[in-house]
Design a protein that fits this description.
Helix content: 40-55%
Length: about 325
């Protein structure tokens, strides 16, 4: 078997030894690709974080903690965020922030941000946690080839991890997934039939728990909607950086909205008439019928003119001049 390359592009290749399981009693080598984290939008923690690609499907934060502890020792690993968890968090945040979206745009247009203290941020996090529905899985599984971002203690720890990966290729002693003696397996829920049984039980959560989550979400949504209306109302008469005041459409009686509705209705009628005219001569039989109707109209008008002319001749023939 050819040796695995140490690097592929910007990534360092980290071979991982996955111990056998009853369903597949063979040792397997999995390749994890590691590089410095360089997102499109830089953050303050990029210098002390690593980007991981092709994480195993059963990855958890405990697995990655044990993996990095085997490479550089304990105390270097701080946290890990997986791709699917980030997308789920962004989707929940988008749903919760749907109400004040207009207010956020107004604030961004005016170049101002609302200052929040740490206590308010903590309360908001608690409200969002209470508004989430309970999970139906005791342990999530990752998609094949998914990614993760690992946050380490400092920038020096990032350099040590990359050096340790290079040493792994020289020593051929691959770190074991789950730690030596598979310590992590004792601290995370099992997979297989136990995992599916737990899913069946969690699929029917307590009714009071569901109702509490729905009530918390409704309360939060209504409150943020009121905040959005208040912010939008306050920003109507607030000048921006250049000293201009944003002119909003309509007033208290909303005359602009009524006028726009009438204009829209007028445009719709004109559009319907134009479409009707365009469809008049669309088919050949319509053109034949139109020409036939025009010909009949000409014949009718000719007959009427002829009758008028005959009447005028008769009237002129009866005329007798005076002597």
């Amino acid at each position: 078997m050819a040796p695995s390359p140490q690097t592929i592009g910007e990534f360092s290749v980290l071979p991982i030894s996955i111990p056998p399981v009853p369903s597949f009693p063979r040792n397997v080598v999995h390749y994890l690709y590691v590089r410095r984290n360089a997102p499109k939008i830089p953050t303050a923690n990029d210098s002390r974080s690593l980007f991981l690609a092709n994480v195993p499907v059963d990855s958890t934060e405990l697995h990655l903690r044990a993996l990095f502890a085997s490479l550089v020792g304990a105390g270097r690993f701080e946290s890990a965020s997986f791709e699917d968890e980030r997308k789920e968090a962004e989707a929940v945040a988008a749903a919760l922030d749907a109400a004040p979206a207009q207010a956020v745009r107004l604030l961004a247009a005016h170049g101002k941000k609302r200052k929040r203290e740490d206590q308010e941020a903590a309360e908001r996090a608690e409200e969002e946690a209470a508004a989430r529905l309970p999970s139906t899985w005791s342990r999530p599984l990752r998609k094949s080839g998914s990614t993760a971002v690992v946050l380490l203690a400092d920038e020096k720890s990032v350099q040590q991890v990359l050096k340790a990966i290079a040493k792994v290729h020289k020593s051929k002693k691959y770190p074991t997934w789950g730690g030596d003696g598979n310590i992590v397996a004792e601290r995370v829920p099992q997979l297989g039939s136990v995992w599916l049984k737990a899913h069946n039980q969690l699929s029917y959560p307590d009714r009071d728990q569901l109702q509490a989550a729905v009530d918390a979400f409704s309360t939060m949504f209504a409150r943020r909607e009121r905040e959005a209306a208040e912010i939008a109302k306050r920003l109507r008469n607030e000048p921006d950086e250049d000293g201009f005041v944003t002119v909003t459409r309509g007033g208290r009686s909303a005359p602009a909205s009524t006028k726009e509705a009438e204009e829209a209705k007028k445009k719709m009628i004109e559009k319907a008439e134009k479409k009707k005219q365009e469809m008049t001569d669309f088919y050949r039989f319509q053109m034949r019928e139109r020409k036939k109707a025009e010909q009949e109209e000409l014949v009718k008008r000719f007959a009427e003119d002829r009758q008028k002319l005959d009447a005028m001749r008769q009237k002129r023939g009866k005329f007798v001049p005076e002597a």
